[in-house]
């Protein structure tokens, strides 16, 4: 049995907006950040100053390489809304997600296609990240896990959920841990019907993975599922017209014992549940996800007996065939959920103050296609990017590639700036993270044990 001694020594001191004047409290100098970040992450003091965009290279566009693009978002800055640096890496790796180490000194950026992980120093000069290390033996080191999805900060280490495996490049995959200095620690394979590892709901277990998020005060690690290398490297039109390929998408989420990394329960969640967002309130024991193929919001929650359950709680869009929801962002007060839909390029906003009964209250056309959404802690600023996967993005005029910023007043999204990544010869804008020169503490405290 594996016990993470460092994680065991930490206890989550959950930020409760209601007890500190609400999300706007960060304007008085409190610690803030993007709302979906790890609770173990050192926080930005006040407002974000930079947005880092992990960007897919496009052959024949600029240098053609994947790159980390830094955009100035400091109010009043002479370069506000402009690119201030761009650091290319070797080749095109299907740049996907990224994540900081707990001290926020490093940003780990993953490539789905060849399983390379690029580590940037974002501490020495946050306006100009520097590539310091590349992990290029991921599959060999981890025992065959491939398709690293990103990195999630844990005490002294990062958790890397993967999407595939080296043996058959299907959906069976693992969670991988590395130390902050880039050394491999351990691989945890997701449960399958043949090897459920003691988890309840073994009849549903498919071994697929995607996102991984932690609620430390409940010792809960939750994972979701997507598809394997064979599918996400295939042309989207070819894949959707292939009945066999469409059978190979994740249909599960898994609840784990966080400290021991043992799977406890497998939930049947049809339709590829993607991003996981835990609620922040210290009495809110639930998380949301959205199913890409099912176009539904799902809630994973602790029932009256403290047992974890999963159920769909709302449709996303009343469109035949679905709208392909791909990313979600939950506000710091747990009242508002932003849902990006790649299919029609819209962001749909839900009132989730009653998490069992979400209600759509607004929608906005962001572009011909839209993928990621990142929301500031005070709820006043949202940033959107466009690229899903290199071979899944739309074709022709619908292939818009951008970073777009909006203000949110609680009623509508109003544009503030727009960067055309194609015109700037940067590539396909994918994942965003916030940067700053001013950092505060993380949201954890050393427990008395």
Q: What would the keywords be for this entry?
A:
449 residues, mainly beta, Methylamine Dehydrogenase, Chain H, 5-stranded antiparallel beta sheet, 4-stranded antiparallel beta sheet, disordered N terminus, disordered C terminus
Overall pLDDT metric: 92
CATH uppermost class: Mainly Beta
Into which percentage range does the β-strand content fall?
Answer: 35-45%
Task: Supply the CATH architecture.
Answer: 7 Propeller
Number of E-type strands: 33
Which class of secondary structure composition applies to the elements?
A: mainly beta
Number of separate helices: 5
- How far the N terminus sits from the C terminus, by CA atoms, comes to 21 Å
Low-pLDDT ranges: 1-29, 445-449
The CATH topology, please? Methylamine Dehydrogenase, Chain H
Overall geometry comes to: globular
Approximate helicity band? under 10%
Largest sheet: 5 strands, antiparallel
Radius of gyration: 20 Å
CATH superfamily: YVTN repeat-like/Quinoprotein amine dehydrogenase
In total, the number of domains comes to 1
